[in-house]
Amino acid sequence: MRYILRTGLFSAISTGYALLRGTRGKPITWRAALGWISWAITFALAIGAVKDLRRQERGLPVAMDSPFAPKPDKREMREKRRDEVRRISNER
After folding, report:
1. Sign (positive/negative) of CA torsion 44, 46, 50, 55?
2. Residue 70's Cα: distance from chain center in Å?
3. What is the pTM of this model?
4. Which residue in 31, 33, 43, 63 has a CA-CA distance of 20 to 30 Å to 72?
5. Which domain range does residue 12 map to?
6. pLDDT less than 50: residues of the chain
7. Tell me: the pLDDT tens digits for 78-88?
């Protein structure tokens, strides 16, 4: 239950239900197709968030683009950028 309310899955399911009710019995237009594509993307992202949350809770590695990924230290990122700039300037 906590996964449904915490990750936007409930919102994606309820939006899909509303979209289904709104398009039932009507011809498919490009707007309806875009609505369904948008819903599919939202639903896939919600499922991915649930998957990443479960992996994090079990202590398994999570992808760096996940909202549950550990955030790098600002100092560490700054030093990494400096090193990259130095490397690029030394190549010239």
Report:
1. positive
2. 15
3. 0.65
4. 43
5. 2-91
6. none
7. 888 888 888 88
